[in-house]
Design goal:
16% helix, 3 domains, 6 helices, Lipocalin, Redoxin, Thioredoxin-like_sf
């Protein structure tokens, strides 16, 4: 099935796709955090009582909802917050208080929810990202109680029965600048509570991870509403059905955080596919090996593919950033995979591109990721977090189009494959295909 736009046109739109479809940063890194409160002191947070909460981020005149659970350990003395995105559960246990303010650190990301009690069973505050060029704040509020993600949930959704086994959509996103890029949408309806939906969108450079939502009836018709909040991204997809009760055609808006906006159109198509992620970039003509020497995350050390440790081994290079959720999905796969397979003669090197030019601070961010995610393979500080920096740091490559990018080196140190993006566990069968392709490539190189 052909795409609504040509691959050449899609390639021209990579900048937009990278900014939202996958983990990409082209903003200038900050040298220091400005005007942002840091966690301080400790104690039980006021108002953060156990139970299920519905949180709402308010941006661009829209509400981006998500659910989270609050529980306690250590005889009720230590709170834990768990973000819920579809099947995903993200446990947050770095929670501190200062006065009436509570700071909930958002996992490996340099971000937090800074909140305070706002009456019985209510919270208000901000989602704060510390690693931007300027302080990044989005208003946040939450109410306690098990609730649907979206209000106005449709009552009669039997017409959406085709989505109970999962529906696939040929999708096109269009930015406010007119650039377009292709995607594949996958949406599934809950078999018991048919108002509930889960799904994601895959692009040539990654996926939008775990989305959840509802079928909603608005004044202008029926809508598919999906959202997610993983600590680094807050996404809202609002798609109106062209005809009531008919999922053949959906169109609407996609909102990302404070300012990101695109429109999208989706057509039901069980054969929808994306270009092969193994063909989007590669080595420049005449080049076979990568030549680099980057500082290790440990002071005084360095990492190069020519180091004795990697001689005669298959080496996988992971181009990543600790700020990138798609990269964390790949790391969640690679970390345990490495422990099981390193004895076979394979190594992994993580090349970190962080949102700071300060090597010490970048090392700290990557070290935190290494510790929290039990990463046993080597990590280096390769540069700052934008595709131009990554491309310049690896000049033998035709270009780095996305974070993450995975590069496979054979036992001679020659590049044999460059894989753009990563389809994470939120994509279902596409994740399984991703893992199968990874294992097939490594197995082939190990046999040589």
């Amino acid at each position: 099935m052909s795409f609504p736009i040509s691959f050449r046109t899609a390639a021209a739109g990579f900048g937009l796709a990278l900014a939202l479809g996958a983990c990409q940063s082209n903003s200038k890194p900050d040298a220091a955090r400005q005007g942002v409160p840091e966690p301080d002191a400790s104690g039980l947070p006021a108002g953060l009582t156990p139970g299920t909460w519905r949180g709402v981020l308010t941006a661009q005149g829209q509400e981006i909802p998500f659910l989270f659970d609050v529980s306690t350990v250590d005889n009720g003395q230590k709170p834990t917050v768990t973000l819920r995105n579809g099947e995903e559960r993200l446990k947050l246990d770095e929670i501190t208080t200062a006065g009436d303010s509570t700071t909930i650190r958002l996992g490996v990301f340099d971000a937090a929810l800074v909140v305070r009690a706002d009456g019985e069973g209510k919270l208000k505050g901000s989602w704060v990202k510390y690693d931007g060029k300027e302080p990044y704040r989005v208003p946040f509020a939450a109410t306690r109680g098990d609730q649907e993600l979206f209000v106005g949930t449709a009552k009669n959704t039997s017409v959406f029965g085709d989505m109970k086994k999962g529906a696939t959509f040929r999708t096109e996103f269009k930015g406010d600048d007119g650039e377009t890029y292709p995607a594949v949408g996958v949406i599934t309806q809950d078999s018991i509570n048919t108002t509930k939906l889960t799904g994601t969108f895959l692009t040539t450079t990654g996926d939008y991870r775990y989305l959840a939502g509802n079928v909603v009836t608005k004044a202008d018709g029926e809508h598919v509403m999906l959202s997610t909040f993983d600590g680094s991204h807050g996404f809202l997809f609002d798609g109106k059905l062209a005809k009531p009760g008919n999922i053949n055609s959906i169109s609407g808006d996609f909102y990302s955080g404070k300012s990101g906006h695109e429109t999208w159109m989706a057509v039901l198509d069980g054969n929808a596919k994306l270009p092969d992620a193994n063909t989007l970039t590669g080595m420049k003509p005449g080049q076979k090996k990568l030549a680099f020497k980057f500082p290790s995350i440990y002071e005084g050390g360095s990492i190069s593919p020519t180091d004795p440790k990697y001689k005669g081994k298959v080496v996988v290079l992971q181009v990543l950033g600790s700020w990138c959720p798609n990269c964390m999905d790949e790391t969640n796969f690679l970390a345990p995979w490495y422990e099981k397979n390193k004895s076979r003669g394979v190594e992994i090197i993580g090349l970190g591109y962080e949102r700071t030019p300060d090597q010490k601070l970048a090392s700290q961010k990557l070290l935190k990721m290494k510790q929290r995610m039990n990463v046993g393979y080597d990590l280096a500080v390769a540069g700052v977090a934008n595709k131009d920096s990554a491309s310049k740091s690896l000049p033998q490559l035709a270009g780095v189009l996305a974070f993450p990018t995975t590069i496979f080196l054979d036992k001679k140190g020659e590049v044999r494959k460059v894989h753009t993006g990563f389809s994470g566990p939120g994509t279902g069968k596409y994740y399984q295909e991703e893992i199968a392709d990874f294992n097939k490539t490594v197995d082939m190189l190990l046999k040589e």
